[in-house]
Design a protein that fits this description.
- The protein is of the alpha/beta class.
- It has three domains: 228 residues, Neurotransmitter-gated ion-channel ligand-binding domain (Acetylcholine Binding Protein, Chain: A); 127 residues, Methane Monooxygenase Hydroxylase, Chain G, domain 1; 34 residues, no CATH class.
- The chain is 34% helix and 22% strand.
- The strands form three sheets. Strands 2, 3, 5, 6, 8 and 9 form a six-stranded mixed sheet that branches. A three-stranded antiparallel sheet has the order 7-11-10, covered by helices on one side. A two-stranded parallel sheet has the order 1-4.
- The longest helix is centred in the C-terminal third of the chain and has 31 residues.
């Protein structure tokens, strides 16, 4: 198993993630001067069993921009018994595919369908004569865009999807070519012709610099048509947010309860003293919210963390209102207003205390308040059309020409081969052009 090289620092990755694909450095040429091009010799029309093994290293997860980056090693194995006949000295010369577009099991021009950008870092082929096994290795650096489900932030779970553009039994490289290779993906099997070190499930990991997520085992579905699905599973560790956001916010709002011990006295400035405490802490909470903005996801809906912070603002607002109301002498006797203030302190204290008991349960029970993975899978598979289409009445153009309609009416009932023959007879100049090219 090849080790992933980690030569770029975090700042470099951020720069690359923000670059458009047009600005990325050109892909390096993977030309092996001594390699011999070979053609796969499996019988056309019959399936080719292909065993994939992937090593995926997640390098970065950016919640604000909802992007993530990874380095992927794709190890692909299949059998071909005719390679030694084409290249007897394959061990010395090395080998490559004669026509990668038609013979490669994956679409090398776009390996991952849902990527923002990708770059092939390395590619090589190897042949194991003992089992007649072909080994194809492709190393890719890739950045994906992921629609993250953040309603329960910071107790959220995420699927990080990777859609592999691989040719399959039902979706070969050229559907119109009867000789196109048909690949049968078998990741759940451990064929004995695969080297022992690769007879295991996909390997995934995260860099140690990603501290707020925990990586879980991936879900793989290679049964369907192109693209094949690889979904990494990660869940957030809320401890950081409990310490950097929830605890300070708890202390700010709790400090506002210091206004209650100031006894109500209509003959002095007790109300002003109470309000000076709560209003000052309200301003402190506003400043704190401004400071932590960069730590919160920028999305169009409210998360659990947003609801919690809003609860804190509501508590401070009600405390300010209570402090002001107790100073209105016409709303009852001083003793009655003092008693009401005491009961309000108890009520607010219970609500605020229960809220933070709930947060303690979140901290010590990993599965509490997290969406089940089966439900996450349903949400992740919701297919949303990202394009907006112009209404038909707002699309204006010229009508179809009569000549084209008549020509299509003549040709649409004929087969493609017959159309070409008839069209060539009607346009003899095409034959002259072909003879000149020859």
């Amino acid at each position: 198993m090849a080790e992933t090289k980690e030569s770029d620092n975090d700042n470099a990755y951020e720069d690359i993630a923000n670059m458009s694909p047009a600005l990325l450095p050109e892909k390096p040429e993977m030309i092996h001067a001594s390699s011999v091009p070979i053609r796969l010799t499996r019988t056309s029309g019959k399936p080719i069993d292909i065993y994939p093994w992937l090593e995926i290293t997640v390098r970065r997860i950016d919640v604000q921009s909802q992007k993530w980056e990874a380095s992927v090693e794709l190890h692909l194995f299949w059998q071909d018994f005719g390679i030694p006949a084409q290249c007897p000295n394959y061990a010395q010369t090395g080998i490559s595919l004669d026509d990668e577009d038609a013979q490669s099991p994956i679409k090398l021009s776009e390996i991952f369908e849902n990527k923002l950008w990708e770059r092939v870092e390395h590619k090589e082929y190897e042949y194991f004569p003992e089992t007649s096994t072909m080994h194809m290795l492709v190393v890719v650096s890739v950045c994906f865009v992921e629609r993250m489900e953040l309603e329960r932030f910071p107790m959220d779970r995420q699927f990080l999807g990777m859609d592999l553009n691989a040719w399959t039994l039902k979706t070969p490289a050229d559907p119109n070519d009867p000789d196109a290779l048909k690949w049968n993906w078998i990741p759940s099997n451990n064929p004995d012709w695969v080297p022992k070190e690769y007879r295991k499930t996909f390997a995934v990991r995260m860099l140690a610099s990603i501290t707020e997520y925990t990586m879980l085992s991936p879900w793989v579905d290679f049964q369907g048509e192109q693209p094949l699905s690889i979904r990494l599973r990660v869940e957030r560790e809320p401890g950081y947010y409990l310490g950097s956001i929830i605890l300070p916010n708890f202390l700010i709002v709790t400090a506002a309860f210091a206004a209650f011990p100031v006894l109500i006295n209509d003959e002095d400035s007790s109300v002003a003293d109470r309000l000076s405490i709560t209003v000052t802490l309200m301003l402190t909470a506003v400043a704190f919210k401004y400071v932590i903005t960069e730590q919160l996801p920028k999305i169009t809906y409210l998360t659990l963390m947003d609801y919690y912070l809003i609860e804190g603002f509501i508590m401070l607002t009600l405390l300010i209102a209570e402090n002001a109301a107790t100073g209105v002498a016409t709303w009852g006797t001083q003793e009655m207003r003092q008693s009401a203030s005491t009961w309000m302190a108890v009520f607010f204290g219970v609500v605020w205390g229960v809220t933070h008991v709930w947060w303690m349960v979140v901290l010590f029970r990993k599965s509490f308040m997290r969406v089940a993975w089966e439900r996450m899978s349903e949400l992740d598979e919701v297919d949303e059309d990202e394009f907006l289409y112009a209404p038909e009445k707002r699309v204006k153009g010229r009508p179809e020409s009569k000549e084209v309609l008549e020509e299509w009416a003549e040709f649409k009932t004929k087969s493609p081969r017959t159309r070409a023959s008839v069209y060539a007879e009607q346009h003899p100049e095409l034959a002259k052009e072909d003879s000149l090219q020859l």
